[in-house]
Amino acid sequence: MPINLLHRHVLEDHISGFETNANPNHLSVIRRPVIFSVLAHAGYEAAVAEALHNADDIASRYCSPSEFLAVSQTRGAGSVAEFLTAIPGASFVNQSDGFVLMAISGPSVRAILSKCLAVDLHPDTFGEGHSAAMMCCHVAANVARTGRNTFELLVPRSFAGSVFDELMEAGSAHALTRGFAD
Amino acid sequence: MASLITCPHCGTRPKEEFSIRGAAAPKRPAPAAKDEVWHRYVYVRDNPKGRVLEYWHHVAGCRRWLVVDRDNFTHEVFGVMDASDFERVRGVE
Ligand SMILES: [Zn+2]
């Protein structure tokens, strides 16, 4: 049973070779995050959004008024599913294998991302904790601000290689380094 | 072409994120309506110059259907609303 093939990350080939130390501008790929797509039933939108917002160790990513992504880097899929089951008016499905989670951070992060997406990321309009679905490197992605100079990107797995390459190209003028988070 | 559309759910976005899905003004007939009525709805459409109501699907964003009120000559956008709100307002009238 080729178990190590099953656990092979889709960006493994893009991050081969020797590892360099992370520069101030760094793109890290989270190896095995837990990602659930959550749909709120009609009339339950606000309640589901609030339950997700208050969850421990689960980040809620806004997609549309009735759709969210629940992302966890610490909890297991079973634990997240258990939590979601308890929310009234929510349907969910495990999408962990369908998305790739990347975190980009550093002093030049906005300059780098401005080459990849057409949304104003100024803290006044896109503050900490804010997330939204948007086009990033020509791919429908979900972008979240997790800190003043830190963003997290969720991209569909099959497009992750292309988005990753474009991000690295956009970051080349800012000495962007990359690597797996662990 | 209007290049920036302010989605009520996502904020101001480039038009590349959307897919334009046709006129929103014609009302869909009842399923059992006469063939002539359906023919008119499906094939006989106006092609106005000026202010139009259109369905825009926010494909790369919230994936909601929106109704954009815009001028196809001056490119001015007058308003954007969720298609479900549009139907609700239209149903009341
Ligand atoms: Zn939208």
What does this structure look like?
Chain A has two domains: 105 residues, Gyrase A, domain 2; 61 residues, ACT-like. Chain A, domain 2 (Alpha-Beta Plaits), CATH 3.30.70.1150. By secondary structure, chain A is an alpha+beta fold. The longest helix of chain A has 12 residues. The model of chain A has no long low-confidence stretch (mean pLDDT 93). Chain A starts with a helix and ends with a strand. Helix content of chain A is 21%, strand content 34%. Chain A is built from five helices and ten strands. In chain A, the strands form two sheets. Chain A has a six-stranded mixed beta sheet, covered by helices on one side. In chain A, strand 3 and strand 4 form a beta hairpin. Chain A is globular, with a radius of gyration of 17 Å. Chain B is of the alpha+beta class and 93 residues long. Chain B has a single domain, classed as Folate-binding fold. Helix content of chain B is 20%, strand content 35%. Chain B contains two helices and six strands, in the order βββαβββα. Chain B has a four-stranded antiparallel beta sheet with strand order 3-4-5-6. The radius of gyration of chain B is 14 Å and the shape is globular. The mean pLDDT of chain B is 93. The chains are: A alpha+beta (182), B alpha+beta (93). At the A-B interface, strand 7 of A face strand 2 of B. The complex binds zinc ion. Zinc ion binds next to loops of chain B. The site of zinc ion has 7 residues of chain B, from loops.
Quick structural overview:
Chain A has 5 helices and 10 strands, in the order αββαββαββαβββαβ. Chain A is an alpha+beta fold and 182 residues long.
Q: On the 0-100 scale, what is the average pLDDT of chain A?
A: 93
CA gyration radius of chain B, whole angstroms = 14 Å
Assembly status: heterodimer
Report the sheet-strand fraction of chain A. 25-35%
Shape of chain A: globular
For the record, what CATH class of the largest domain in chain A applies? Alpha Beta
Overall structural class of chain A, as computed from helix and strand content, comes to alpha+beta
Of all chain pairs, the largest interface belongs to: A-B, 13 and 14 residues
